[in-house]
């Protein structure tokens, strides 16, 4: 019998996850799919940042489902480009 797990309640979806929780989320998302969502290449743990698929400033939620792996290493550096696009769209 598998123990039933309660889904984590999201009391503070408008607050950005920081610190150890963020590190754990990084590992969790990366383990799920270690490929950059932008260019599709396989990235190592130190070669990506978590990106909010819908940026928080654009109304996205700070949840695993809204997070993806984006590389930060050149030449693609998808996370930097995505961030710039997110900022541009919010204007
Ligand atoms: Zn990439």
From TrEMBL:
Pfam families: HNH. SMART domains: HNHc. GO terms for molecular function: endonuclease activity. Residues 24-80 form the HNH nuclease domain. Keywords: Endonuclease, Hydrolase, Nuclease. Signal peptide: none annotated. Gene3D superfamilies: 1.10.30.50. Residues 1-20 are annotated as: Disordered. It comes from the Bacteria. InterPro entries: HNH (IPR002711), HNH_nuc (IPR003615). This is HNH endonuclease. It comes from Luteibacter jiangsuensis.
